[in-house]
Every structure is written in structure tokens, then in C-alpha cells.
Design brief:
Elements lengths: L1 H7 L1 H20 L5 H35 L15 H54 L4 H26 L9 E5 H11 L1 H7 L2 E6 L3 E5 H18 L5 E9 L2 E8 L33 H9 L4 E8 L3 E8 L2 H9 L1
Parallel strand pairs: 2-4
Antiparallel strand pairs: 1-3, 4-5, 5-7, 6-7
Helix pairs in contact: 2-3, 4-5, 5-7, 6-8, 8-9
Pfam families: HATPase_c
InterPro entries: BphY/WalK/GraS-like, HATPase_C_sf, HATPase_dom, His_kinase_dom, HisK_dim/P_dom, Sig_transdc_His_kin-like_C
GO biological process, one term: cellular response to phosphate starvation
Length: 336
Amino acid sequence: MIRKFLIERISWVSLIVLLQLLALILAYLDSSLSIDSMFYYVFLSLVISSLFVVIRYFKETSFFKELDLRDSTTDITSLPEPNSPFESFIYNEITSLIEQLEKDSSTNRLLLEQEKDEMLSWIHEVKTPLTALKLIIDRTEDHQLKSELMHEWLRIYYLLDQQLHKKRIPFIENDLFIENVELESILYSEIHMLRSWCLKKGIGFDVELSSTHVLTDVKWLSFILRQILTNAVKYSEEGSEITIQSAVQKGQTILNVTDNGRGIDPPRDVPRIFDKGFTSINKHQDQHATGMGLYLAKKAAIPLGIHISVWSTVGRGTTFTLTFSKENRFLQIQGE
């Protein structure tokens, strides 16, 4: 801060030094002036000027140092009182800027809340004709047409579902209901939703659950599994099988979802698949991927105390592993 203070007042310092040099030059040119007396005058002037600069430094910077020591989140009333006209000017500028920023922030929050509510309302309204459309598809007798319509219906349903949970994730802590849930019922419910797509690709499921219950929120766990299962079906080869296994390791429930698809290619993309908007279009050129499913699954897993990891081999398949927290550790996470 000292350096900045001196740089801002370089014109003052230069003027003081210039006046002292001028006095010495006059003493040198004018023989009637004593050079020793002039040196003494210059010395005293420099001492007084230095003391003046030091005093002004501490006086003028005390206001700003007090601002730096305060929390940036404090309100306007906590700002230090100005001690000079210059500080009053700075004080007024800062307070007016903070007031404007607080006003803009409040307006933006209201707009975001309004936009979120409108989006949620729109999604729920769209789900009504979507449900009616599914009933119409179920009555279709042409099995080939029914399969194709269900596949497209499923894509629309999952896109809407992603948008709904995307809007809810920032407030997920307010939406959690923790209970002891049965993994089998959740898994079979999600598999049943994918039935038409799996029949079309000839994909089967092998479910072996050694650990059958976990402490979690059923709605958000269903959403996480939905993203992983749809990803597994999407990238599995026709006629292949998806294996789902659970076990207990070191007091923690482990759930593995393994497909026999092409794997993640190139392998360097593995750490990036949970990044927002990331889509790998190498080889398969998937134009419809949004890059949001796994990102939202990862975001939703954090407050649930679920760790998601992935292992993949090109040409052999991919395994997603969900590691659930121990009950005591989960309760500790919730308490934080």
C-alpha cells in the first residue's frame, strides 16, 4: 500500500524535490547566499516533508485499511465513518455503489425465482399431455409402431425430467426425505421405464443384490440411477446384457452398473464425463447428447453422500460404481 500511496502522489514528491534542488542551484549561483545555510534549509525541508508524507499516509490509509479488515458481506451501516472531505467522497461513492448492487442483486434473484417457477409450471403442464400420449401409445396394436413411438416418448420424458431436476438441484437440501429404501424396487421401476428401448435393442438385465437397502432419498436416488441406466442402455451393443450388482464393503453399500458396450473412447475422456455440457462424439457422432445427465447425477449425489466413480475399457464396456456413505457418516454430512 505504501508503494501505491507514493505512486499516486508522485507529483507532490517531485515538486518537493524540485524545490529543494532549485534552492541549492540558487545558492550555488548567488554568492550572497550561504551554501551551508541552504543545505541546512534543504535538510530541514526534507525532514518536515517526510514527516508530513508519513502522517498523511497513516491518516488517509486508515479508512481503507479498516475496510479491508472487514468482511465483504457486511452491510453499509458497518462501514467506518469518514474523517475528511476526501474520505466522505469515497464513503458516499462506496455506499451508493453497494446500494445499487444490492438492489440489482435483489431484482435478479426475484427474476430467477420467477423464471424457475415458470419453468417448473411449464414442465408439469407438459407432463399432462405426455401422460395422455403414453395411454394412446399403449393402445396401439401395431407393435413396430408402438415400439418406435415409445422410444421417442421416452426421450421426451427424460429430457423434461432432466430439466425438472436441474431446476430443483440448487434447492435439493429442502427437497430431501431420508429413509431406508429398498434398492430392488427402485431399480426395477427404472428398468421397467426403459423396457421398450431395451426390447428394441435386445438388451437384458442381470440383477444381483447382496445388499438390498440403503439410507437415502428415494426420489433423488431414482434420478441418479435413471441417468446411469439410460447411459448404459444408450451405449450398449444390441443383444448385450447390463449387470447390476450390490455388495457391502467396509460397512458401505456398493452398487455397480456394468454394460458390455464400446466403452469410453478415448480413455482420456473418462474424468470429463461428469463435466457440465461434455459430450464425446468420437466415432459414434451422437448429435442428441446434451452432456447434462451425468453432470446432474454427480451434483445430486453430493448432498446424498454418494460417491460416483467410473471404470471403462474401450471395446469391452463401462462400470459405474455408487458408493453409499455409512449411516453415521451420512448423518454427519446431513448435519453439516
